[in-house]
């Protein structure tokens, strides 16, 4: 498969993916409802903040943070690990391999094609956050928006590559479901999804800062709500994109070797 062929096919694949997302909009609504944990945590932490601020967070700051977390989750989520694992078990991955387009590109476009519909959910949530919190709910400058946008793209790529890596392990293991369950627990706890990562003790925070999970959720949320000056934000973005490159290389290598194994066993 050449790069030129992929680029020519990409618009068509995105249109097909969007049509499928519209056709299966009920499933999308169920997925959105299944990712409302930040709204639950917002209610819990807002109740805590009624008796006094928690660090730099009062009730308004918690509203801004968790509504931002909800929005980031909608725009960066991926289900490729579960889809890939299912297709390996059912043998339908072989059908994808017969097409002239890389299955990884096909998986990516299927996820990206649903983002326009997710924006319909995100837009009113951002409006509510602006109404409750004010200008602090979004970046205050064009540069801030740029850093946030870059972190959002990085978060999507980190999540996608982790999903590819986990799903590809199905080519090596009888089942990678347990590993995916562990991944989800670590993501919930370490990413900033359930509470800001700055609530961890300093020692634990040092460990979290070198793991990929914070860069899937916490960093975009922090940049959206103006938690970092430009200098620290650039350092964190460098770490995030280091994970993008590293995971991209590892996921691609594991994928290629897994396909060779898949073909050798008659997949």
From TrEMBL:
Q: Which InterPro entries match?
A: ABC-2_transporter-like (IPR010390)
Keywords (alphabetical) are: Membrane, Transmembrane, Transmembrane helix
Transmembrane residue ranges: 21-45, 65-84, 104-133, 145-173, 185-208, 233-255
Source domain of life: Bacteria
Q: What is this protein called?
A: ABC transporter permease
């Amino acid at each position: 498969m050449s790069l030129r062929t992929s680029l020519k096919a990409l618009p068509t694949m995105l249109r097909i993916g969007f049509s499928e997302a519209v056709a299966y909009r009920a499933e999308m609504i169920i997925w959105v409802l299944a990712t409302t944990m930040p709204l639950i945590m917002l209610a819990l932490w807002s109740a805590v903040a009624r008796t006094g601020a928690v660090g730099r967070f009062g009730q308004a700051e918690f509203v801004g943070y968790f509504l931002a977390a909800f929005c980031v989750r909608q725009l960066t989520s991926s289900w490729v690990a579960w889809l890939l694992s299912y297709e390996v078990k059912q043998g339908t991955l072989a059908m994808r391999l017969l097409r002239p387009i890389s299955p990884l590109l096909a998986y990516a476009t299927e996820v990206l094609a649903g983002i326009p519909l997710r924006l319909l959910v995100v837009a009113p949530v951002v409006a509510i956050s602006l109404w409750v919190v004010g200008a602090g709910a979004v970046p205050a400058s064009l540069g801030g928006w740029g850093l946030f946008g870059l972190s959002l793209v990085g978060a999507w790529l980190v999540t996608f590559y982790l999903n590819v890596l986990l799903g590809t392990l199905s080519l090596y293991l009888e089942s990678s479901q347990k590993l995916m369950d562990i991944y989800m627990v670590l993501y919930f706890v370490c990413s900033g999804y359930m509470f800001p990562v700055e609530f961890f003790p300093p020692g634990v925070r040092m460990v979290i800062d070198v793991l990929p999970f914070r860069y899937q959720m916490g960093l975009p949320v922090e940049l959206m709500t103006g938690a970092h000056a430009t200098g620290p934000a650039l350092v964190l973005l460098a770490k995030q994109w280091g994970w993008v490159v590293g995971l991209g290389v590892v996921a691609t290598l594991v994928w290629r070797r897994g396909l060779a194994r898949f073909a050798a066993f008659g997949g």
